[in-house]
Amino acid sequence: MTLQGKKIVLGVTGSIAAYKAVELVRAFVTAGVSVRVVMTESAQQFVAPLTFATLSRQEVMTDLFTLDAEAKIRHVAAPDGADLLLVAPATANAIAKFAQGLADDLLSTLFLATTQPVVLAPAMDTDMYRHLAVQENLERLRNRGVRIVGPATGELASGLLGPGRLADIGEIVQAATELLCPTRDLRGEVVLITAGPTREPLDPVRYLSTRASGKMGYALAEEAMTRGARTILVSGPTALSSPHGVECIRVETALQMHTAVLDRLAEATVVIKAAAVSDYRVAQPADSKLTKRDAPLTLELVPNPDILKEVGTKKGERIVVGFAAETGDLIRRAHRKLTAKRLDLIVANDVSQEGAGFGSETNLVVILDSGGGVEELPLLPKRQVARHIIDRVVGLRQHKDRV
Ligand code: CTP
User: Fold this and answer.
1) Using CA atoms, how far apart are residues 341 and 244, in angstroms rounded to an integer?
2) Which ligand 1 atom sits nearest the alpha carbon of residue 341?
């Protein structure tokens, strides 16, 4: 995979992280990419255009109100002008403009004019990032096919601790590379993925559930789709929107997930079960709200079907991957599940470890295979864990094709 000869436009907006965009330019230029930098006015308060001009060896574009601005925009946004628009760092203000379609400066105008893939790497204070307005804007852009990378979690310039740091330069380069030189090694495969928790109703207002956010399964769906697979995502209730280009089937209970998976199983050549399925459901959910009584309440729970086990028995030529979230005795328990459910791979994580728990942006996993292999991965963003799992699936497919 080579980036040599590719052309990108790098938009830099007014965040303290603008200085990190300098590293980004260096990384791309070293890889043989032509980088045309566009700076907003506030970005120029943080880094001088000359820095970018020197490193990119190209004039930096800053001003919409020049005589040749229109010609420049047309040239840069044209299909042969650039292969990708990357905005890093992207401030809350820039993200809002892109989401709303405002075009009051060069970068926002370019954003509207471009027909090429777009990657945004947000960077801002945690409170700003968490604000519903920013979240809604990001969601809107994501739904339109914009790839959002990061932000990373850590200490911010303000001293706050939380999400808002610009993603690692390596991660941004990787995201751009995936769009510039897509690896289509899952072409021809149909990947069925489950994600999120299930909800088992007690009555019309209450339910039993698990602490899963769905992030791991959604990252897998995005990765599988990017690598050329037709991707079907069966998702329990999550706050996430399905990745662009993925068929998403929303379910609530384990029984519904069971039906959805079995309905689509015949099409699938790969099944990855990242969902945290509730093992039990309430035997008789009440039709109306349970009222408080001055006595203990006993719920009768009945087992839910083990969806993955059933998939394992109907495996055929399929590649089947399971997950095991444990709080101790990780390898032994995961290995037992790998064998009992006839899996090719199991992705095990100890959810009591820092950064590996439900809802976090990162994961710390061990991948066990049916040949006895044990691969420990370092703490990584979930998207990178997903890439690794898909690499293993591709490896298994190549192996199966050889024998
Ligand atoms: N799984 C499933 N259906 C269930 C329970 C689990 O498909 N009813 C799948 C999960 O999606 C996961 C794997 O089985 O890929 C392991 O789930 P886990 O909850 O760790 O294991 P269980 O088999 O439920 O065993 P235990 O709860 O005793 O750890």
Assistant:
1) 31
2) 14
